[in-house]
Amino acid sequence: MAVGLPLFTILESAGLPVMGHPWREEMVNTTRNESWALFGDMTFAATPELNLTAGLRYTKDRKRFTWFNGPFSSPGLEQVSAPGALYNAILGAPLFPDEAMIDVATFFGLVVGSDIIFDSGALEGVEVSRRASFSDFSPRFVVDYTPMPGLMLFASASRGYKAGGFNSVQINSFFEPESVWNFEGGFKSELMDKRLRLNASLYRFTYKNRQSLSLESVDGSGLPQYVTSSGDSTATGVDFETSFAVAPGFSLSAVGAFIDSKWDHRIEQGVDVSGQPTGEPSFRAVLSARFDREVGGIGNLFANASYSFTSKQRINDATRASDAALENNPVFGELVDFSQLTKLRASREIVNARAGWRSADDRVSVSLFAENLFDVRTPRSLNLISAHTLGTPYVRMDRPRFWGVELGVRF
After folding, report:
1. Could you tell me which residues come within 8 angstroms of residue 285 by beta carbon, excluding any fewer than 6 positions away?
2. Nearest-5° angle of CA 59, CA 61, CA 64?
3. So what's the pLDDT on residue 391?
4. Among 75, 103, 321, 359, which has the minimal tally of Cβ within 10 Å of its Cβ?
């Protein structure tokens, strides 16, 4: 507060103990939502090997939302008082009787006349309501073909929908409904007497008004807020999955995904990021091994381990501008040492493992487990929601190594 709000710094320097007191503001929301849908699918077996499927879904949504922002509350500041003469000297104008004792909360309300976080102006203390209704038809088409036992080829086109709505921290705000067309084609297979499973697909998503949370400067607020904003985007990718039964009770598996996701049209934090990444990493994969074998008549011994890899986050100009604004700010720049954050949004590698015993009747089990076995500490995100106002940026790290013993009993 001393950094972000100069008025309190001035009052503190004048001898008033204003720092360290709780400050409370509220934006109270109520909502009433109604949603109903009709849907159906029909599959036509054109040949024994070829199926054609068509479906349709109709959705109707009605929403009512209210905002109510009351005055701030700070009981501690209500106990700190000073003569009007002190306030007049600070303001350079005779606004208060010199001898009148006025508490700091009253002074702030009279001079600033608003909240810090939720500055609603004339709407403070007024309940604001808004209604909206949305409807959508979403079709689905699928073709699947089985040229031989254990192999299926497929292709599909489908439309998805998400209702629009309201941002809880912005009075009378509204965002449009989201829609997406998904085109996908691929194959699913089971080979080698079903010991080997291999699946893969190629897809493309085309979003209109894709809804996502974004940290934005909000009119009338001393702090940026997480609000739902929208933009059009396109994503193209490949998914694959495979598993192989090496021996009875022992199997290996792998799943992975490549994706190229970019905004077609989007303004984020005042920056045009059209044609730039939406933030998703381009590649994810998980390799795993599993062992589960009966031992004599005492039950089963089991063990599994997994290795997961996520490539570095693909950032856009809005994120770069936000980082640069903080790093180069003469007041706040020293709060973050970017030389210590070389792995910020970097690739991530995590190993998890578990081993244990399970009774023959599957009722009792005991296992030793470890998550993030090698204690990888990667800074995942830099949060600036309170950096420029309160001087408190913070970094969110990966969860450190976590291990334990688990006892299970089934009744």
Report:
1. 254, 255, 256, 257, 308, 309
2. 180
3. 63
4. 75
